[in-house]
C-alpha cells in the first residue's frame, strides 16, 4: 500500500516508521522546514515523553470516553514508546510522579530518536510541503492535492495535531481533512492554558509562585477539581501546573468557575490558629503584618489580610479572636472566580477536534 502521513511531529514520525516497518511505501509530509518543531518546547525544553504508570491508569485520566483508546493502547503503549526510543540510542530516566524524560534533559535527543526511526524504516520525507486537500473517491481516500499537483495513495494518516502554539505550524488543517473524509469534528478550544480571574488582586502578585497549596474548583455548586501543587500569579490571573490541569477540566466553559486556595493544606484550622497565636504572641508589640511576616510572602500576606478585612498596620494587641479566625478561614479558603481562559496561542494542547464518541 502507498501510505501518506500528514504531520511530522512525534506522532506522525512514529506512525510513518511503523507503517514502513510493516511493508508499506510511506511518505511523510511536513509543512515546516524541519520535523518535530513543537518537540523543542515540550516539558520546558526537556520533553516529558510519557509516564511509567500502568495502562489502566492512563484511561482513568482521560476525561471523555477512554474506551476510544483501548484498541490503540493494546497495539502500542507507553512501554512500547520507551523501548523504541532507547533502541534508537537515547537513554531515558523516570522522575517524580512517574514522568519519563531523556536522561540528557534535552528534547532534541527525543527528536533525534524519532528521526532515526523514520529514516531507518525507509520513509520518504517531504519538508516545506503543505497539503491543500485530501482527495476522496467513492467514500474512500484516494490521494492528496499540493497546489496543482495530485498524488494518489491508498491510505492517509492525519497527524497534524491541534491548533495550540500556531507558530510551530499547528494551524488546524487536520480538522478540514477529517471533515472531508466524513468525521464529526467538535469545536476546538484551548486546554492546559492559563486562566483569567475576575478579581484584580492576582495582578498585584504577578510573578509570585506558591508551592504545596491545594486548589479546589466548583462549578454550579459541584466540586470538579481538587489537587495539591504549584500555582503562579500573573498579570491577568493565574497559571502554573495546577492551573493548567484545572483548565483541562473546565475547557470550553471556564467562566464562573469558583476557586478556593488552601495556602496551608498541611495544617488543620485548629493547628493554623495555634500557629497564628504563637506568631502574634512573639510579636506582641508589632503590627499584625510584621508579626506574621514568616507566614506568607509579604505581598501575598498583605492581600490576604485585606481580604480578611484586617488592616496590616493594626497593632497585634487590637486583633481580636473573631478577626483571627477570619484570617484562618481566608488562609484555608482564599477565593477566586474565573472569568475566562487565555488564547490558543498560549495553550499547551487543544481540546475538541475529531469526535471520539
Structural description of this entry:
With 357 residues, the protein is α+β, with helices and mostly antiparallel strands. The chain has 2 domains: 2-159, 3-Layer(bba) Sandwich (FAD/NAD(P)-binding domain); 194-341, no CATH class. 31% of the residues lie in helices and 27% in strands. The protein is built from 12 helices and 18 strands. The chain has helices at residues 10-21, 55-60, 70-75, 78-87, 107-120, 173-180, 201-204, 241-250, 269-282, 288-291, 298-307, 321-332; strands spanning 2-6, 25-29, 50-51, 92-94, 99-102, 124-126, 133-137, 140-146, 149-152, 155-158, 185-191, 195-197, 209-219, 222-233, 237-239, 258-262, 334-341, 349-354. The strands form 5 sheets. It has a 6-stranded antiparallel β-barrel with strand order 12-15-14-13-16-17. Strands 6-2-1-10 form a 4-stranded parallel beta sheet, with helices on both faces. Strand 8 and strand 9 form a beta hairpin. Helix 1 packs parallel to helix 5 (107-120) and helix 9 (269-282) crosses helix 12. It is elongated, with a radius of gyration of 26 Å. The mean pLDDT is 93.
Task: Show the helix and strand layout.
Blueprint: E1 2-6, H1 10-21, E2 25-29, E3 50-51, H2 55-60, H3 70-75, H4 78-87, E4 92-94, E5 99-102, H5 107-120, E6 124-126, E7 133-137, E8 140-146, E9 149-152, E10 155-158, H6 173-180, E11 185-191, E12 195-197, H7 201-204, E13 209-219, E14 222-233, E15 237-239, H8 241-250, E16 258-262, H9 269-282, H10 288-291, H11 298-307, H12 321-332, E17 334-341, E18 349-354
Parallel strand pairs: 1-2, 1-10, 2-6
Antiparallel strand pairs: 3-5, 4-5, 7-8, 8-9, 11-18, 12-15, 12-17, 13-14, 13-16, 14-15, 16-17
Helix pairs in contact: 1-5, 9-12
Amino acid at each position: 500500500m502507498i501510505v501518506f502521513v500528514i504531520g511530522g511531529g512525534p506522532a506522525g514520525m512514529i506512525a510513518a516508521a511503523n507503517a514502513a516497518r510493516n511493508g508499506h511505501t510511506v511518505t511523510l509530509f511536513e509543512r515546516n522546514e524541519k520535523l518535530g518543531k513543537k518537540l523543542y518546547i515540550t516539558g520546558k525544553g526537556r520533553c516529558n515523553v510519557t509516564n511509567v504508570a500502568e495502562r489502566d491508569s492512563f484511561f482513568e485520566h482521560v476525561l471523555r470516553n477512554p474506551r476510544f483508546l483501548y484498541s490503540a493502547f493494546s497495539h502500542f503503549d507507553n512501554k512500547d514508546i520507551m523501548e523504541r526510543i532507547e533502541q534508537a540510542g537515547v537513554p531515558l530516566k523516570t522522575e517524580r510522579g512517574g514522568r519519563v524524560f531523556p536522561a540528557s534533559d534535552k528534547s532534541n535527543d527525543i527528536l533525534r530518536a524519532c528521526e532515526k526511526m523514520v529514516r531507518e524504516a525507509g520513509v520518504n520525507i517531504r519538508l516545506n510541503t503543505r497539503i491543500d486537500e485530501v482527495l476522496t473517491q467513492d467514500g474512500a481516500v484516494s490521494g492528496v492535492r499540493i497546489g496543482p499537483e495530485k498524488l494518489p495513495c491508498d491510505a492517509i494518516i492525519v497527524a497534524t495535531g491541534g491548533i495550540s502554539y500556531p507558530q510551530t505550524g499547528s494551524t488546524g488543517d487536520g480538522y478540514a481533512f477529517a471533515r472531508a473524509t466524513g468525521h464529526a469534528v467538535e469545536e476546538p478550544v484551548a486546554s492546559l492554558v492559563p486562566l483569567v480571574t475576575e478579581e484584580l488582586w492576582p495582578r498585584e502578585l504577578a510573578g509570585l509562585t506558591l508551592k504545596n497549596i491545594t486548589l479546589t474548583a466548583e462549578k454550579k455548586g459541584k466540586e470538579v477539581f481538587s489537587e495539591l501543587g504549584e500555582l503562579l500569579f500573573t498579570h491577568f490571573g493565574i497559571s502554573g501546573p495546577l492551573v493548567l490541569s484545572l483548565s483541562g477540566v473546565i475547557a470550553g466553559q471556564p467562566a464562573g468557575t469558583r476557586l478556593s486556595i488552601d495556602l496551608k493544606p498541611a495544617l488543620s484550622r485548629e493547628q493554623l490558629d495555634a500557629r497564628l497565636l504563637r506568631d502574634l504572641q512573639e510579636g506582641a508589640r508589632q503590627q499584625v503584618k510584621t508579626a506574621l511576616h514568616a507566614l506568607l510572602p509579604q505581598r501575598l500576606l498583605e492581600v490576604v489580610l485585606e481580604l480578611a478585612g484586617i488592616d496590616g498596620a493594626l497593632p497585634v494587641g487590637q486583633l481580636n479572636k473573631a478577626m483571627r479566625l477570619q484570617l484562618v478561614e481566608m488562609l484555608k479558603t482564599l477565593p477566586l472566580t474565573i472569568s475566562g481562559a487565555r488564547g490558543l496561542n498560549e495553550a499547551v494542547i487543544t481540546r475538541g477536534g475529531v469526535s471520539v464518541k
